[in-house]
Amino acid sequence: MGFFDKLKEGLGKTRQNIANGLDELFGTYERIDEYFYEDLEEVLVLADVGADATKKIIRRMKEKVYEENIRDQAGAKNALIESLAESLRGIDTAEEDPDERKVLLVIGVNGVGKTTSIGKLAMNYKNQGKKVILAAADTFRAGAREQLEIWAERCGCDIIGHPEGADPAAVVYDAVSAFEGKQADILICDTAGRLHNKKNLMDELAKINRIFEKKLPGIRKEVLLVLDATTGQNALSQVREFKQVCDPDGIILTKMDGSAKGGIVIAIAEEFKIPVKYIGVGEHAEDLQKFSAEDFLKAIFFSEEDGQ
Q1: Mean pLDDT throughout 162-175?
Q2: I need a labelling partner for 64 at 20 to 30 A (CA). Which of 48, 134, 168, 185 fits?
Protein backbone atom coordinates (compact mmCIF):
# COMPACT_ATOMS: atom_id res chain seq x y z
CA MET A 1 0.00 0.00 0.00
CA GLY A 2 1.40 3.41 -1.02
CA PHE A 3 1.70 6.43 1.25
CA PHE A 4 -1.42 8.11 -0.11
CA ASP A 5 -3.47 4.91 0.17
CA LYS A 6 -2.35 4.52 3.78
CA LEU A 7 -3.30 8.13 4.44
CA LYS A 8 -6.72 7.64 2.85
CA GLU A 9 -7.31 4.47 4.84
CA GLY A 10 -6.12 6.11 8.06
CA LEU A 11 -8.48 9.04 7.55
CA GLY A 12 -11.41 6.72 6.86
CA LYS A 13 -13.47 7.78 9.89
CA THR A 14 -12.93 11.47 9.18
CA ARG A 15 -13.75 10.91 5.51
CA GLN A 16 -16.98 9.14 6.42
CA ASN A 17 -17.94 11.86 8.86
CA ILE A 18 -17.12 14.93 6.75
CA ALA A 19 -17.43 13.78 3.14
CA ASN A 20 -20.58 11.74 3.67
CA GLY A 21 -22.17 14.56 5.63
CA LEU A 22 -21.37 17.01 2.84
CA ASP A 23 -22.58 14.63 0.13
CA GLU A 24 -25.89 14.33 1.95
CA LEU A 25 -26.06 18.10 2.37
CA PHE A 26 -25.32 18.88 -1.27
CA GLY A 27 -27.79 16.20 -2.34
CA THR A 28 -30.55 17.70 -0.21
CA TYR A 29 -30.40 21.32 -1.35
CA GLU A 30 -31.22 22.36 -4.90
CA ARG A 31 -30.09 25.93 -4.29
CA ILE A 32 -27.32 27.52 -2.26
CA ASP A 33 -29.13 29.66 0.31
CA GLU A 34 -28.83 30.62 3.97
CA TYR A 35 -30.50 27.38 5.07
CA PHE A 36 -27.81 25.47 3.17
CA TYR A 37 -25.03 27.48 4.87
CA GLU A 38 -26.57 26.90 8.30
CA ASP A 39 -26.54 23.13 7.76
CA LEU A 40 -23.03 23.31 6.31
CA GLU A 41 -21.87 25.08 9.45
CA GLU A 42 -23.29 22.26 11.56
CA VAL A 43 -21.49 19.59 9.49
CA LEU A 44 -18.14 21.34 9.85
CA VAL A 45 -18.52 22.09 13.56
CA LEU A 46 -19.46 18.47 14.27
CA ALA A 47 -16.28 17.42 12.45
CA ASP A 48 -14.29 19.55 14.94
CA VAL A 49 -13.36 22.22 12.44
CA GLY A 50 -14.42 24.58 15.23
CA ALA A 51 -16.94 27.41 15.34
CA ASP A 52 -14.51 30.26 14.62
CA ALA A 53 -12.73 28.47 11.80
CA THR A 54 -16.05 27.36 10.31
CA LYS A 55 -17.33 30.93 10.15
CA LYS A 56 -14.19 32.04 8.29
CA ILE A 57 -14.38 29.11 5.89
CA ILE A 58 -18.03 29.73 5.07
CA ARG A 59 -17.43 33.47 4.67
CA ARG A 60 -14.73 32.82 2.05
CA MET A 61 -16.95 30.27 0.34
CA LYS A 62 -19.84 32.74 0.19
CA GLU A 63 -17.59 35.36 -1.37
CA LYS A 64 -16.47 32.96 -4.08
CA VAL A 65 -20.03 31.75 -4.76
CA TYR A 66 -21.20 35.36 -5.08
CA GLU A 67 -18.27 36.62 -7.17
CA GLU A 68 -18.44 33.73 -9.62
CA ASN A 69 -22.23 33.50 -9.59
CA ILE A 70 -22.06 29.81 -8.72
CA ARG A 71 -25.43 28.08 -8.80
CA ASP A 72 -24.67 24.38 -9.17
CA GLN A 73 -23.73 21.93 -6.43
CA ALA A 74 -20.41 20.92 -8.03
CA GLY A 75 -19.28 24.53 -8.19
CA ALA A 76 -20.34 25.13 -4.59
CA LYS A 77 -18.45 22.05 -3.41
CA ASN A 78 -15.32 23.24 -5.21
CA ALA A 79 -15.72 26.66 -3.58
CA LEU A 80 -15.86 24.96 -0.17
CA ILE A 81 -12.77 22.85 -0.84
CA GLU A 82 -10.85 25.91 -2.03
CA SER A 83 -11.85 27.73 1.15
CA LEU A 84 -10.65 24.78 3.23
CA ALA A 85 -7.40 24.74 1.27
CA GLU A 86 -6.96 28.43 2.10
CA SER A 87 -7.16 27.52 5.79
CA LEU A 88 -4.41 24.94 5.36
CA ARG A 89 -2.19 27.12 3.21
CA GLY A 90 1.13 27.76 4.85
CA ILE A 91 1.09 24.89 7.36
CA ASP A 92 2.69 22.34 5.03
CA THR A 93 6.14 21.25 6.08
CA ALA A 94 9.02 22.59 4.00
CA GLU A 95 11.37 20.06 2.45
CA GLU A 96 14.14 19.09 4.84
CA ASP A 97 17.82 19.18 4.04
CA PRO A 98 18.72 15.46 4.13
CA ASP A 99 22.23 16.24 5.38
CA GLU A 100 21.18 18.65 8.14
CA ARG A 101 21.90 17.72 11.75
CA LYS A 102 19.18 18.80 14.15
CA VAL A 103 17.65 18.58 17.60
CA LEU A 104 13.96 17.91 18.21
CA LEU A 105 12.46 18.86 21.57
CA VAL A 106 9.13 17.05 21.82
CA ILE A 107 6.49 18.34 24.24
CA GLY A 108 2.90 17.41 25.03
CA VAL A 109 0.67 16.36 27.91
CA ASN A 110 0.65 12.78 29.13
CA GLY A 111 -1.49 10.39 27.13
CA VAL A 112 -1.33 12.07 23.72
CA GLY A 113 1.14 9.55 22.27
CA LYS A 114 4.25 11.67 22.75
CA THR A 115 6.74 8.92 23.54
CA THR A 116 5.33 6.63 20.85
CA SER A 117 5.63 9.45 18.31
CA ILE A 118 9.26 9.95 19.31
CA GLY A 119 9.90 6.24 18.79
CA LYS A 120 8.28 6.34 15.35
CA LEU A 121 10.28 9.42 14.39
CA ALA A 122 13.47 7.69 15.50
CA MET A 123 12.59 4.62 13.45
CA ASN A 124 11.86 6.71 10.37
CA TYR A 125 15.16 8.58 10.68
CA LYS A 126 17.06 5.32 11.23
CA ASN A 127 15.49 3.94 8.07
CA GLN A 128 16.92 6.97 6.26
CA GLY A 129 20.39 5.99 7.44
CA LYS A 130 20.58 8.61 10.21
CA LYS A 131 22.42 8.17 13.49
CA VAL A 132 19.81 8.94 16.17
CA ILE A 133 20.12 9.58 19.91
CA LEU A 134 17.11 9.70 22.25
CA ALA A 135 17.00 11.71 25.47
CA ALA A 136 14.57 10.42 28.12
CA ALA A 137 14.05 13.84 29.73
CA ASP A 138 10.39 13.37 30.70
CA THR A 139 11.66 12.28 34.09
CA PHE A 140 8.48 12.90 36.08
CA ARG A 141 6.18 10.43 34.29
CA ALA A 142 6.42 6.94 35.69
CA GLY A 143 7.65 4.48 33.08
CA ALA A 144 8.49 7.13 30.45
CA ARG A 145 12.15 6.17 30.28
CA GLU A 146 11.35 2.45 30.10
CA GLN A 147 8.89 3.06 27.28
CA LEU A 148 11.49 5.03 25.34
CA GLU A 149 14.13 2.34 25.98
CA ILE A 150 11.89 -0.19 24.22
CA TRP A 151 11.77 2.05 21.15
CA ALA A 152 15.53 2.65 21.30
CA GLU A 153 16.17 -1.09 21.30
CA ARG A 154 13.64 -1.61 18.53
CA CYS A 155 15.23 0.90 16.18
CA GLY A 156 18.82 0.37 17.27
CA CYS A 157 19.65 3.85 18.54
CA ASP A 158 21.34 5.12 21.69
CA ILE A 159 19.35 6.49 24.60
CA ILE A 160 20.44 8.79 27.41
CA GLY A 161 18.45 8.74 30.64
CA HIS A 162 18.66 9.40 34.38
CA PRO A 163 16.63 7.94 37.25
CA GLU A 164 13.00 8.94 37.63
CA GLY A 165 12.60 12.42 39.14
CA ALA A 166 16.00 13.66 37.92
CA ASP A 167 16.51 17.13 36.48
CA PRO A 168 15.39 17.01 32.80
CA ALA A 169 18.03 19.59 31.88
CA ALA A 170 20.76 17.29 33.23
CA VAL A 171 19.50 14.50 30.96
CA VAL A 172 19.54 16.86 27.98
CA TYR A 173 23.05 18.04 28.88
CA ASP A 174 24.37 14.47 28.79
CA ALA A 175 22.42 13.74 25.62
CA VAL A 176 23.90 16.79 23.89
CA SER A 177 27.38 15.64 24.92
CA ALA A 178 26.67 12.21 23.40
CA PHE A 179 25.21 13.84 20.28
CA GLU A 180 28.42 15.79 19.72
CA GLY A 181 30.77 13.04 20.86
CA LYS A 182 29.27 10.47 18.50
CA GLN A 183 28.61 13.01 15.73
CA ALA A 184 24.99 11.86 15.54
CA ASP A 185 22.57 13.32 13.00
CA ILE A 186 19.38 13.59 15.06
CA LEU A 187 18.81 14.18 18.79
CA ILE A 188 15.22 13.70 19.95
CA CYS A 189 14.38 14.83 23.48
CA ASP A 190 11.26 13.56 25.25
CA THR A 191 10.21 16.16 27.81
CA ALA A 192 7.57 18.54 29.16
CA GLY A 193 4.49 16.55 30.01
CA ARG A 194 3.39 18.68 32.97
CA LEU A 195 1.27 21.52 31.71
CA HIS A 196 -0.50 22.01 35.05
CA ASN A 197 2.51 23.87 36.45
CA LYS A 198 3.44 26.40 33.78
CA LYS A 199 6.09 28.17 35.86
CA ASN A 200 8.07 24.96 36.40
CA LEU A 201 7.64 23.99 32.78
CA MET A 202 8.76 27.39 31.55
CA ASP A 203 11.86 27.23 33.78
CA GLU A 204 12.63 23.71 32.60
CA LEU A 205 12.42 24.63 28.91
CA ALA A 206 14.50 27.76 29.48
CA LYS A 207 17.28 25.68 31.08
CA ILE A 208 17.18 23.20 28.22
CA ASN A 209 17.33 25.97 25.63
CA ARG A 210 20.35 27.50 27.36
CA ILE A 211 22.10 24.16 27.03
CA PHE A 212 21.31 24.04 23.30
CA GLU A 213 22.48 27.62 22.79
CA LYS A 214 25.74 27.06 24.65
CA LYS A 215 26.67 23.58 23.39
CA LEU A 216 24.99 23.42 19.96
CA PRO A 217 25.02 26.99 18.63
CA GLY A 218 25.05 26.00 14.95
CA ILE A 219 22.55 23.13 15.10
CA ARG A 220 18.95 23.60 14.02
CA LYS A 221 16.49 23.12 16.87
CA GLU A 222 12.75 22.48 16.62
CA VAL A 223 10.05 22.28 19.29
CA LEU A 224 7.33 19.81 18.29
CA LEU A 225 4.01 19.74 20.14
CA VAL A 226 2.18 16.40 20.17
CA LEU A 227 -1.64 16.49 20.19
CA ASP A 228 -4.22 13.71 20.25
CA ALA A 229 -6.75 14.15 17.42
CA THR A 230 -9.41 12.21 19.30
CA THR A 231 -9.59 14.92 21.98
CA GLY A 232 -11.07 17.37 19.47
CA GLN A 233 -11.38 20.94 20.65
CA ASN A 234 -9.35 20.13 23.76
CA ALA A 235 -6.35 19.95 21.44
CA LEU A 236 -6.86 23.64 20.63
CA SER A 237 -6.86 24.43 24.35
CA GLN A 238 -3.55 22.59 24.72
CA VAL A 239 -1.99 24.63 21.91
CA ARG A 240 -3.10 27.85 23.61
CA GLU A 241 -1.69 26.67 26.95
CA PHE A 242 1.66 25.58 25.54
CA LYS A 243 2.00 28.80 23.55
CA GLN A 244 2.04 30.63 26.87
CA VAL A 245 5.16 28.65 27.75
CA CYS A 246 6.96 28.35 24.40
CA ASP A 247 6.46 28.79 20.66
CA PRO A 248 6.10 25.37 19.00
CA ASP A 249 7.73 25.11 15.57
CA GLY A 250 5.42 22.33 14.51
CA ILE A 251 2.70 19.91 15.53
CA ILE A 252 2.45 16.13 15.51
CA LEU A 253 -1.22 15.10 15.44
CA THR A 254 -1.64 11.51 16.64
CA LYS A 255 -4.46 8.96 16.44
CA MET A 256 -6.03 10.42 13.31
CA ASP A 257 -7.05 6.88 12.35
CA GLY A 258 -9.11 6.63 15.53
CA SER A 259 -10.89 9.94 15.09
CA ALA A 260 -13.93 10.87 13.03
CA LYS A 261 -13.11 14.51 13.75
CA GLY A 262 -9.99 15.11 11.69
CA GLY A 263 -11.30 18.59 11.00
CA ILE A 264 -9.20 19.57 14.02
CA VAL A 265 -6.31 19.93 11.55
CA ILE A 266 -8.21 22.75 9.87
CA ALA A 267 -9.09 24.37 13.19
CA ILE A 268 -5.43 24.36 14.27
CA ALA A 269 -4.30 25.76 10.92
CA GLU A 270 -6.92 28.51 10.88
CA GLU A 271 -6.30 29.71 14.43
CA PHE A 272 -2.56 29.23 14.96
CA LYS A 273 -0.86 28.85 11.56
CA ILE A 274 1.63 26.44 13.16
CA PRO A 275 2.98 23.91 10.62
CA VAL A 276 1.57 20.42 11.03
CA LYS A 277 4.70 18.30 10.65
CA TYR A 278 3.29 14.79 11.01
CA ILE A 279 0.00 12.99 11.42
CA GLY A 280 -0.42 9.50 12.84
CA VAL A 281 -2.74 7.26 10.83
CA GLY A 282 -1.93 3.85 12.29
CA GLU A 283 0.07 1.79 14.76
CA HIS A 284 3.21 1.16 12.72
CA ALA A 285 6.22 3.47 12.51
CA GLU A 286 5.58 4.17 8.83
CA ASP A 287 2.05 5.31 9.73
CA LEU A 288 3.48 8.51 11.20
CA GLN A 289 3.42 10.44 7.94
CA LYS A 290 4.61 13.87 6.92
CA PHE A 291 1.60 16.11 6.59
CA SER A 292 0.54 17.37 3.17
CA ALA A 293 -2.44 19.72 2.97
CA GLU A 294 -3.14 18.69 -0.61
CA ASP A 295 -3.08 14.97 0.19
CA PHE A 296 -5.15 15.53 3.32
CA LEU A 297 -7.95 17.20 1.37
CA LYS A 298 -7.80 14.65 -1.43
CA ALA A 299 -7.97 11.76 1.04
CA ILE A 300 -11.14 13.20 2.59
CA PHE A 301 -13.05 14.72 -0.31
CA PHE A 302 -12.15 12.88 -3.50
CA SER A 303 -12.94 9.37 -4.63
CA GLU A 304 -11.49 7.26 -7.41
CA GLU A 305 -14.42 8.36 -9.58
CA ASP A 306 -13.21 11.95 -9.29
CA GLY A 307 -10.03 10.97 -11.10
CA GLN A 308 -7.87 12.10 -8.21
Answers
A1: 94
A2: 48
